[in-house]
Amino acid sequence: MSQYDVVICGGGVIGGSVAYALSRNKDLKIALVDYKNPGNASRASAGGLWAMGESTGLGCGVILFKTLSKQLQEGADVSQAEGMKPHIMPKPFFDLAMMSNAMYPALNQELLEKHGVDMKFEKTGLKFVLFDQYDRIYAEHIASAVPDRQQHIRWLDRDTLLSEEPNISREAIGAMEFDTDHQINPYRLNDAYVEAARQNGVDLYLNTKVTGIERQGNRVTAVQTSRGKLDCGMIVNAGGSWAEQISLWATGMQMPVFPVKGQVLVSEKLPKILNGCITTSDCYIAQKDNGEILIGSTTEERGYDTSTDLTLLKQLAQGAMKSIPQLRDMNIKRCWAGLRPGSPDELPILGPMPGIEGYMNACGHFRTGMLTSAITGKLLNELVRGEPTSVDITPFLYDRFLNESGDMVGEYHLEASL
Ligand SMILES: Cc1cc2nc3c(=O)[nH]c(=O)nc-3n(C[C@H](O)[C@H](O)[C@H](O)COP(=O)(O)OP(=O)(O)OC[C@H]3O[C@@H](n4cnc5c(N)ncnc54)[C@H](O)[C@@H]3O)c2cc1C
User: 124 and 277 in contact (C-beta within 8 Å)?
Assistant: First the structure.
């Protein structure tokens, strides 16, 4: 039997970041327990650090928005332009995303220099490539929704776009670019956090399942695992799409975190054909550090299903070929589906549960967990130590899902967020 100050349940990019942030001072005894369930989001991710993009309805946001608005508008009498209005995330999330984004250059350097691990951080920018007047309306809505961030928006006419990205289709009419938004390699980021945490003394229980959680009164006291019991002073729930089970064991309370499937395809390694990340109203496209072209991604609520289907993958591929005609000749190397840990309002769920001691949430990061992992680690380190947090976490507390009687009222799907 082992005794820990903190046991982190879940070793995706969120659990990894929390383990790394907590272990920096080397003053706590920490365990990280992870079993890679099929659909683990961190290994499925595209690796975009698209802070402005994802906060304003680009990147995966544009695909989510199109999926949901299509569902909601079937039969509804709204003009097409109105239906194309982007989905701007609330200010607290925007600020959180931008703060996290700003941490990556130093984090990258620290992980590389102190721990010898490379997340392949690459400054790319994110271009929303415009093909018609509806794309332009969508882009103009976005730009007008962030008046205080105009310095990060660059409008490219057709000639400038084609001079910067010569492989983009001649059909494009221009682009809107966010110069803040970059990329990492998601596998490398996850591995970097976990390896750096290990070097700082965190005990890794990999290929190990959390099978139960013990409580005495209202205090969590131990985590049961497939490799034995770990006594502890506190647990962190970083269970991704499986966070509700951990919450039920630890607190008896429901947690409105649910899987949102994303399908992705990846080409064989190609010579450099993209200088930056691009997004369109059909898909996003990123060339990763090894030359592979990643094309993503669907947004589907299908429970824990991780199958891929040709119809949707074909739609993504067609969107990519429309943007970069030479992709018609590419070979697809791999396709997969991962499960984003969705929350009803798309905001992460951070911090304590009412009435429970020795428990912290770090879940519900939906489509931006890569981006927000850095700030999540920092905030959880402050919360676990009982320090004031560097961001007001009120908008991210579980309490937002409770009514006046203390009953959970969060929905288990995304339509509520529109
Ligand atoms: C297709 C796709 C594309 C994406 N693209 C981006 C992007 O470009 N940028 C971005 O910022 N985000 C992106 N995301 C979102 C991002 O991947 C997630 O928000 C992030 O990975 C969530 O991390 P996590 O650690 O919470 O969850 P996960 O990575 O799922 O990790 C949770 C871990 O806990 C484990 N676990 C659960 N229960 C138990 C248990 N009982 N015992 C042991 N282990 C357990 C799971 O198996 C898993 O390994 C994308 C996601 C998908 C699916």
Answer: yes
Residue 207 has which token pair?
Answer: 């290929």
Q: Report which of residues 82 and 321 the model is more confident about.
A: 321
What 3-state class would DSSP assign to 252?
coil
pLDDT tens digits along 19-62: 999 999 999 999 999 999 999 999 999 999 999 999 998 988 88
How many CB atoms neighbour CB 162 within 10 A? 17
Question: Which long-range contacts (C-beta less than 8 Å, at least 24 apart) are formed by 144-149?
Answer: 145/56, 145/86, 145/88, 146/52, 146/56, 146/88, 146/94, 149/52
* 79 CA → ligand 1 middle, Å: 36
Residue minimizing CA distance to atom 26 of ligand 1: 240
Burial label for 151, CB within 10 Å (0-12, 13-18, 19+), is exposed
Six-digit token string for 213: 């959680």
Global pTM exceeds 0.90: yes
Structure tokens at 136: 């332009």
| Mutation choice for ligand 1 from 42, 249, 261, CB with most ligand atoms inside 8 A | 42
* Residue 317 phi, psi dihedral angles, 5° rounding: -65, -40
Q: How many residues does the chain have?
A: 418
Indicate the pairing of strand 182-183 with strand 2-9. unpaired
8 Å CB contact between 173 and 136: yes
Dihedral angle sign, alpha carbons of residues 88, 120, 298, 410: negative
Tokens of 261: 């499937």
Residue 25, number of CB atoms within 10 A of its CB: 10
